[in-house]
């Protein structure tokens, strides 16, 4: 798996993300282990973004109507419906509580389209009085055959330069079927898994976040970050990312739900 340096716009994105990505209440209560199969959307667990955009590069406004539980799935949408001065509207949600060391994992299927980003990640930042720490899976939907993994520590990508991301070939296109994504996070090691198979291990301390973070899902687009996400292909009908389930197992605990990599 080849290490690739992400463009400078990725670092600018991270910086502009800080003031507004986390509009939920600032409390940092620690999240216990949980499993959510989205038979319904538990708003005591999840906060849905609405009415704002992360940065000027984003061509959509977060809209709560694009995040819903339906038919046992969490749907996170992207729509050609303009909203609050942006040409498009898009979906994002986060846990209300932060997770600490442990294993977080989800099963999801993405749409496709150049200029779009489907993400499953953890994040915390200055809104909670903490540095910007982050652990990412991001599928850049111009190429649904690969996924990028990244960490940020105190606002700097893991190697201390612009872009510590690695690209990983997916077992099949992320828009063709569901794929399981998992991360085990500890004080000395982060390990990424795709469909239960390890694809990346990080064991350098300066690459490993230490602050509890919230779990996020998002689907968004850009007209400007073309060097990273490709030229935006206009969307003429609503599309969505589907999340079958998500779970978190706190460090020191064992198999909590049968889909977990900890149950193998």
Oligomerization status of the protein chains = single chain
Give the DSSP E fraction (strand runs of 2 or more residues): 35-45%
| Molecular shape | globular
Distance between the termini: 24 Å
Largest sheet: 17 strands, mixed
Bin the helical content.
Answer: under 10%
User: H/E order of the elements?
Assistant: HEEEEEEEEEEEEEEEEHE
As residue ranges, the low-confidence spans are 1-27
Mean pLDDT: 89
Class by SSE composition:
mainly beta
Q: State the total count of DSSP E strands.
A: 17
Radius of gyration: 17 Å
**Total number of helical segments?**
2
Please characterize this protein's 3D structure.
The protein contains 2 helices and 17 strands. The protein is mainly beta and 264 residues long. Residues 1-27 have low confidence and may be disordered.
Layout of helices and strands, plus pairs?
Layout: H1 8-17, E1 34-36, E2 46-48, E3 60-62, E4 67-70, E5 73-79, E6 88-95, E7 102-109, E8 116-124, E9 133-140, E10 146-153, E11 156-157, E12 166-169, E13 179-185, E14 190-194, E15 197-202, E16 214-221, H2 226-229, E17 239-250
Parallel strand pairs: 3-6
Antiparallel strand pairs: 1-17, 2-6, 4-5, 5-6, 5-17, 6-16, 7-13, 7-17, 8-9, 8-16, 9-10, 10-11, 10-12, 13-14, 14-15
């Amino acid at each position: 798996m080849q290490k690739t340096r992400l463009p400078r716009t990725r670092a600018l994105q991270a910086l502009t993300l800080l003031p507004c990505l986390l509009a939920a209440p600032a409390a940092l209560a620690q999240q216990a282990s949980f499993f959510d199969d989205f038979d319904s959307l538990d708003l005591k667990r999840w906060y849905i973004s609405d009415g704002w955009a992360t940065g000027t590069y984003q061509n959509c406004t977060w809209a709560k109507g694009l995040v819903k539980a339906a038919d046992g799935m969490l749907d996170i949408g992207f729509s050609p419906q303009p909203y609050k001065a942006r040409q498009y509207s898009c979906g994002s949600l986060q846990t209300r509580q932060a997770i600490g060391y442990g294993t977080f994992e989800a099963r999801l299927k993405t749409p496709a389209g150049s200029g779009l980003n489907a993400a499953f990640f953890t994040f915390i930042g200055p809104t909670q009085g903490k540095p910007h720490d982050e652990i990412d899976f991001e599928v850049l939907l111009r190429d649904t055959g690969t996924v990028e993994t990244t960490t940020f520590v105190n606002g700097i990508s893991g190697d201390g330069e612009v872009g510590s991301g690695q690209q990983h070939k997916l077992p099949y296109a992320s828009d063709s079927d569901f794929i399981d994504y998992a991360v085990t996070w500890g004080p000395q090691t982060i390990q990424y898994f795709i469909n239960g198979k390890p694809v990346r291990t990080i064991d350098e301390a300066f690459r490993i976040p230490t602050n509890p973070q919230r779990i996020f899902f998002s689907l968004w687009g850009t007209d400007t970050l073309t060097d990273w996400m490709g030229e935006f292909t206009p969307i003429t009908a609503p599309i969505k990312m589907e999340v079958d389930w998500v779970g978190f197992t706190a460090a020191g605990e064992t198999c909590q739900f049968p889909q977990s990599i900890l149950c193998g």
